[in-house]
Design a protein that fits this description.
single chain, alpha/beta, Purple Acid Phosphatase, chain A, domain 2, six-stranded mixed β-sheet, globular, binds fe (ii) ion
Amino acid sequence: MSIRKTENFDNKNSSDAGVHHHLIDRREKWFTHRKTLEGNSIANATPGRRKSIKSWRFFSYSINFFNFILKAFFLFNRGKRNSEHCQVKLQDHIFSDIPENFNGLTILQVSDLHLQEDPALIERIISLVNGLSVDIISFTGDFTTKTKSVLSDDEISIRLEKLVSAVRPKVGAFGVMGNHDHAELAQKLESIGIKMLINEAVDLVREGQSIRIVGTDDPHYYFTKDSLAALKTANEKFTIAMVHSPELFDMASKLGVDFYLCGHTHGGQVCLPGGVPVLTHLNAGKRFFRGAWYINGMRGYTSSGVGTVALPVRFNVRGEVVLHFCRRA
Ligand SMILES: [Fe+2]
């Protein structure tokens, strides 16, 4: 199987060299704009919504209070053990229009690593995925945590490189940015072989048939029209979208995406008995906070993620990496 770069937004007739330059220009433009948004603290949230600093402050006070309660009631260590007890989830998906040559495609989804919180997490994942046969690794964002700097970007990349080499995906590793990831990290990850899809798409070609993988920047804080333009290319062929959160479900399904992979919610991370989440951190698509879902002809999966954020605890929802099997009906 081969990977073909696709230039699909506004430069369809350019030569290969022209395409390459155009991609570089676009990436530079993205970087500058992303840095401005990151610096502003109030980033463009999901279409129609704005994040406020006030709500973030309230959230961080609540976290401190919750931490105090957990320790007072001797629950903190149990929550920590829960968070370290992650699983490989096997998930089947049936598609009527996936090309014949891609029947049986396997995608290992690794979401919300938040490596700053637990640098040893990679070792646990490696022992979990050992021996799996994987075509593609899909990293659906939040490699790091915005507010912590235990690891440098180099140290994060080294860990990810170790994971990718342990899995040895037959086609390759692809990633999208999360709301906790900073723009500089994208280039570092590409240097170790993870192809970042930032409002971009690639085609996978197998014996004359192809499918598309399109990735957007995080829509929770950093939505721009470029994400929309990228998703618009989905109507040309069978398309898998990688987006950090489920918040673009409506656009993606209407634009012809077939399979939507996302994370961000941690499945709630701290849930009431029965897996009922207290918080989902979603401005849209709250009902898609965890697991497999289906809407307007599009299949989706929201991973509960494998790491934790804010506090290293989980209750009533396990961390996971997901092995998706894509089969033709
Ligand atoms: Fe996130």
